[in-house]
Amino acid sequence: MTLADYARDHAVHAAVVLVFFLYPPVNGALESSPLAAETAAFLPGITFMIAVLYMGLFAMSFDFVSGYTGYLSFGHAAFYGTGAYFVVLAANGQIPGIPGGTPFMITLLLGALLAALLALVIGSVSFRLTGVYFAMITLGFAQVIYELIRSWGYVSTNPQEGATIGGDGLAIGVPYVDALSLRVGRLTGTSVENLLGLGIDVSATVVSYYALGAVVLASYFAMQRILHSPFGRVMVAIRENEERARAVGYPTYRFKLAAFAISGFFGAVAGGIFAAYARSVSPDNSYFFLVTADALITTIIGGFGTLAGPLFGTAFHQWLEDVLSTESGGLATYIREGVPATVLETDVFGLSVELFVNTALAGRAPLYLGIVFVLFVLFVPNGILGTVRDRLGGTVGKRLPERLRRYRR
Amino acid sequence: MLLETDGLTKRFGGITAVDGVDFALESGELCSLIGPNGAGKTTFFNLLTGVLEPSDGAIRFAPGAGAGEGGQAGEGGDGGVGTRDITDASPHETALAGIHRSYQITNLFPTLTVLENVRIAAQAARGGDAWKLWRNVRSFDAHYEEAHQILDRIGLDGAADAVAENLSHGEKRSLEVGVALAGDPDLLLLDEPTAGVSSEGVDDVVALIEDVAADHSVMLIEHNMDVVMGISDRIAVLHRGELIADGPPESVRNDPAVREAYLGGYGREGDATGEEQSGGTDGDGSAAATDGGRRVDRPTGRAPPAERGRASGRTPNRGGGGR
After folding, report:
1. Facing residue for B129 by CB, picked from A230, A237, A245
2. Cβ-count burial of B312 within 10 angstroms (0-12 exposed, 13-18 middle, 19+ buried)?
3. Domain map of chain A by residue range?
4. Chain A partners of B104 at a C-beta cutoff of 8 Å?
5. What is the spatial distance between Cα A58 and Cα A285, in angstroms, rounded to a whole number?
6. Partners of B311 in the β-ladder
7. What are the structural domains of chain B?
8. Which of A48, A214, B1, B54 could bond to A318 as cystine, CB 3.0-4.6 Å?
9. Contact by Cβ (8 Å): B10, B255
């Protein structure tokens, strides 16, 4: 395979990476342009984009096992939580054998390996079941761990509230080499002033965005590589017809376990980078079953069994959250500020427009996400990326260049 | 001896589906397994392949031992591989040992391409390759080459990129055999390869079976008597789980016990077609789920089912399309 082939096969990958890479400066430029109000209202802020990264990675790890082997891992939050808690506890020196101050990249890896081990334990029991029973038992395992963590006093004095990281920001990069590491966190992260002497300032949030993005990108390529290996083909064969996969000679139980462990590994990586950025973790934002539900919803919206789809599904989810929140701009604020007061005060069926905007839009993302989810399940069952692939007749990376060539003539 | 069962028994609750079967298969043979619906034929296959665990008895398999008709590469000559007890083996273990099967009800990887259906089976036969997580599947040329060879053999190379579920029924039946072939079997178990195939298509399937039987040992479950009589070296008859006859086609055909049990008292029921139509549903009430009463299998009330020349005319796919 020549370099040119390689470049062509990955042109779409490169384009997506570029979009993510250019997002902060473009967003920043728009914010200081005449379109500032629209930008604040309709484009997600960087904090939301960071959530796209770690939640997207989590959803991709969920899709890795659920979308490719067909076993719905409803307890996937167990791995996310394990990664997150391991990173936090390790940073606080609370994990025996791991001194505080051990580089984040190492504790992240160890946490992910622990989650893979946990996946083997949970999987060795759960993979004796199939279908909805598998989903339920993994959910059960995760909820047991959730309850344990919630009441485990060792984690913090108030385990229900979770734990926080003290000290410096955790660094993503090459362990022990400060020059090749970037600290993450909104307040504790590295910020760059006057980048390369170009007079560009990069805030700590944006640095965190790039650092987390690098981890997500590496994880994505690792998972994609595995899916394109003979092993990945066996995963798909199991999804398509497990009985036949067994009959042609695959010990499917072992393959499923291995896939589950890999999936748990990357789920924990997602949890780890989330904790490193947020600098705190609670049972409810890590081990709780609704965390899995988020991954499930975004995976269905993005495209089940497409790996990259869940990232786009998450982007959509976070965009919706951002537009409907009032934290940074948002649609409700935009309308309140942009629409004349006389209109806002108009009564419609005994309700002022302003009150309507406040109740129907501000902070109502879950409502609309639910509606969108229902519509997707009904009308776009293959999700965003799945549908695009169906239309193109193959993966976007392969088909799009061909299509474009056809139009160029 | 390639395969040997010793008092093989399978009980489901109070029903004995396979009852103390002593059976042996020589290498290179094409042996048909016949019997009414619910006789235990598919259950017998499920026991051999490890899908079901025997209630009693033993199964021994000796791939490579005295490989008669060639075709099997490797250690054929000295018969030195030895006999393996596969009584408690799981499905993937029997597959890796060299027993592969096709299914009565099409059982493919529906959304994968025809090529990938066969390739994934070829990959399985090369055990360790499937665990190479870090190499692109396309770099395993041998898998693809073998898959294409098999597609060529079953006449589907032109449809390599088609999605399996979009094939015609007849093509799916061929692909069934192809997937089984890709596992590089020493023993091939074919469960009703002609099920639901149109009368014109049966001859193609028969040609494929004969081609495959030339270099494989084959066990064939088949309801079409003309096919069975025409191509079998040997016929074994199951009735209510028991092996009631086992021998060359002529002797089985004239065996009174077979006539009584399997042919349903041929000659007594009178007119052919009408009886056959109803025969499919009244059948043996104890029919195993897999036999599902889809097809009429008792060539009741007609001349001894011998002459293959009349095959196509007498094997309409009654009910076969209703799946």
Report:
1. A230
2. middle
3. 45-308
4. none
5. 13
6. none
7. 1-97+217-323 (3.40.50.300), 98-185 (3.40.50.300)
8. A48
9. no
* Contact flag A231-B179 (C-beta cutoff 8 Å): no
- What pairs with residue B31 in β-bridges? B219, B234
Q: Which helix (H) or strand (E) holds A200?
A: strand A200-202
Task: Tell me, yes or no, if A128 comes closer than 8 A to chain B by beta carbon.
Answer: no
* Nearest-angstrom CA–CA distance, B205 and B227: 10
Looking only at the bridges linking them, the beta strands covering B30-34 and B217-221 are parallel
* pLDDT per position as a tens digit, A125-153: 999 999 999 999 999 999 999 999 999 99
**For residue A233, which residues of chain B lie inside 8 Å, CB to CB?**
116, 119-120, 123, 130, 137
3-class secondary structure, A252: helix
Of A232, A241, A249, which has the smallest distance from its Cβ to B124's Cβ? A249
Q: Say whether A231 and B136 touch across the interface (CB within 8 A).
A: no
| The two three-digit tokens of residue A21, written as one number | 């890479």
Residue B203 contacts residue B311 (beta carbons within 8 Å):
yes
ipTM: 0.87
Give the residue from chain B lying closest to A1, CA to CA.
B139
Residue A110 identity: L
Per-residue pLDDT tens digits of chain B, which is 323 residues long: 899 999 999 999 889 999 999 999 999 999 999 988 888 999 999 999 999 999 999 999 998 654 444 444 443 344 445 788 999 999 999 999 999 999 999 999 999 999 999 999 999 998 789 999 999 999 999 999 999 999 999 999 999 999 999 999 989 999 999 999 999 899 999 999 988 888 888 888 899 999 999 999 999 999 888 889 889 999 999 998 999 999 999 898 888 888 877 656 544 444 444 344 443 333 343 433 344 434 444 444 444 444 434 344 444 444 433 33
Q: Is A251 on the interface with B (CB under 8 A)?
A: yes
Q: Under an 8 A CB cutoff, do A249 and B125 touch?
A: yes
- Phi, psi for B189 (deg, rounded to 5): -105, 115
**Chain B residues near any Cβ of chain A (below 8 Å):** 49, 51, 90-92, 95-96, 100-101, 103, 107-112, 116, 119-121, 123-125, 127, 129-137, 140, 143, 179-180, 182-183
Distance CA B62, CA B98 (A): 9
Question: What are the pLDDT digits (tens) for A19-35?
Answer: 999 999 998 888 888 88
Distance CA B209, CA B147 (A): 18
Fold of the A45-308 domain: ABC transporter involved in vitamin B12 uptake, BtuC (1.10.3470)
Please give the single-letter amino acid code of residue A374: V
SS3 A321: helix
The SS3 assignment for A170 reads coil
CA dihedral sign of residues B154, B158, B161, B164: negative
Interface contact flag, A250 B92, Cβ < 8 Å: yes
A236 touching B (Cβ < 8 Å): yes
CA distance B217 to chain A (A): 17
Could you tell me the pLDDT band of residue A194, with boundaries at 50, 70 and 90? confident
B4/B219 Cα distance (integer angstroms): 13
Give residue B5's pLDDT: 94
From A234's Cα to the closest Cα of chain B, the distance in A is 7
